[in-house]
Structure formats: C-alpha cells, structure tokens
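User: Run a structure prediction on this.
Assistant: Running it now.
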Amino acid sequence: MNGNNRSSAIAAAIIILGVGIMLFVLPKIVLWIGDYSPVLAAVLGSLVILSFFLIFWLRARYQRRRDNQN
C-alpha cells in the first residue's frame, strides 16, 4: 500500500466513522425536532442520509481532477 492509497483509506474511514456516529444519534435528534415540526425532522433526516453520498461524490470529483492534472 503506497502513501496515496493509505491516505484515501484513512479519509474514507474517517468519513464513514463520522457519518456512522451521526446516523447513530439521528433517531433521537429527529424525534426531538419532530415534536416541533415533522417536516423539519424529515428534511433533517434526508439531508443527513444524502450527505453521506454527497461527501463521497465530492471526494471522487476532487481526486479525478487532481489525477488529471498530474
């Protein structure tokens, strides 16, 4: 494993860990916000789920752009 692969693996692990923690506490947060506004709770839940895919999509775009410059 070279330095570039190791860096990518560490970044992916950090992202997955961060999103995993957020998904672990998401039900409590959504239920708490749902007491005030069910629509806001649904929007928050959707944004958290979509953020997982958005982060990896942005990272892939960045890496493609960086690889094309070299």
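Residues 14 and 20 are 10 Å apart (CA to CA).
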